[in-house]
Amino acid sequence: MSNDGGPDSIQTVTSQNVQDDRTVISATASVVGQSRSRTGQSNVYVFLCENPWPARNSDGSWAPWRDQAGNCIAGSGDCTNSYNYELYYCRDSGRAGTFDDLPPLLGTTSTPPVIRGRSSTTLKEAYFFRENVPTATTSLTIVDDGTGNSVTANWIAVPEVSLTNYRVYWGTASGNYSNNRELPNTANTFQVTGLQPGTRYYFRLTAIYSDNRVETDLYNEISIVPRDTTPPDFPTNFTAATTTISGEIRLSWDAVNGAVSYNIYYGTTLGVYGTSRNVGNITSVILSGLRSDNSYYFSVSAVDAAGNESSPSAISAGPISPSP
Fold first, then answer.
1. Cα distances (Å, whole numbers) of residue 269 to 265, 274, 298
2. Which of 30, 34, 71, 117 is most buried as measured by Cβ atoms within 10 A of its Cβ?
């Protein structure tokens, strides 16, 4: 392997002693035209796992837990402080998130395992303890936003210093959550968008803590069916004008975004409409058969695909006589 872009080149890169999914990569580099070189080594682990123990570092690097100097408590006599073994395992169950993964072990710098030894000739014993599963929340509610495609999750924040994130899970089958979103520890609400109106969704919540990124058990499952209950805007620029035919009047209005049809109401008393008519998705209609000696009150409302009806726009006109 070489680097032709500059004066320095890597002469050799070799892996040695591949064993138990681990190898050592050795690299030798030399400077062209000079008689000096440098050799270095690095441990490489082939460990395919989404959620390993120990957890990945914030910079993406990872290393197993290692026996090291000063990590044991002597039962009697001397304590063996050799670097003689490593420990790591995969917690991942294969599903999204870590709530159903194998539990992590206490083994960080702040919470080391208990290790005992009596002399350099006896076997060192290590006792690892399971990480406690903390609390996610004490309350979770899901509120329908009324748009048909979004709901809002609300929960009570847990006052724990080591809590770093919350995670909201949702899906269309109970116990099977195909979607999740991780949120900062300052969050106590989250709007879930992109939902299908009339489809039942199931929601749960977890919290994630800094020690080994421990994720809590799933908090109470809540289901909801998002429905569109938000009416469209009311029509504007509603006008009435007589035609050349007696007893006719032309009503016109501006189109409303999201409307699929319009309802026309009219009568001889304001707010009392004995006759109504759905005119479809048009913005102008001619009404006929009106008495030319009466004044009429007209109203138009917009209707969306979910059947929500807007508040009406009302005007009065009359007596109804033909235009000259």
1. 11, 9, 10
2. 117
- DSSP for 48-99, written as a single string: --SSEESPPPTTS----EE--TT--EESSS--------EE-EE---SSSSST
Range of the domain at 277: 239-317
**Hey, what are 144's tokens?**
């329908």
Q: Model confidence at 310, in pLDDT bands (50, 70, 90)?
A: very high
The pairing of beta strand 114-117 with beta strand 73-74: parallel
Gap between the Cα atoms of 167 and 218, Å rounded: 10
Report the CATH number at residue 252.
2.60.40.10
The structural domain count of the chain equals 4
The answer to whether residues 321 and 242 touch, using CB atoms and an 8 Å cutoff, is: yes
- What span, in angstroms and rounded, lies between the C-alpha atoms of 171 and 148? 16
On average, the pLDDT of the chain sits at: 79
Residue 40 lies in a domain: yes
Beta bridge partners of 24: 16, 43
| pLDDT value of position 7 | 46
Task: Annotate 8-23 with b (16+ C-beta within 10 A) or e (fewer).
Answer: eeeeeeeeeeeeeeeb
Residue 250 falls inside a structural domain:
yes
Nearest C-alpha neighbor of 88 from the set 67, 115, 111, 58: 67
Residues 204 and 260 in one domain: no
Q: Which value, in Å, is the radius of gyration of the alpha carbons in the chain?
A: 36
Q: Are residues 197 and 162 in the same domain?
A: yes
Domain endpoint, select from 93, 109, 131: 131
Beta-bridge partners for 262? 280, 302
Question: How far is 145 from 316, CA to CA, in rounded Å?
Answer: 36
Is residue 33 one of the residues assigned to a domain? yes
Residue 243 scores a pLDDT above 90: no
pLDDT value at residue 5: 44
Q: List, for residues 244-269, the tens digit of each pLDDT value.
A: 888 888 999 999 999 999 999 988 88
More confident residue, 245 or 227: 227
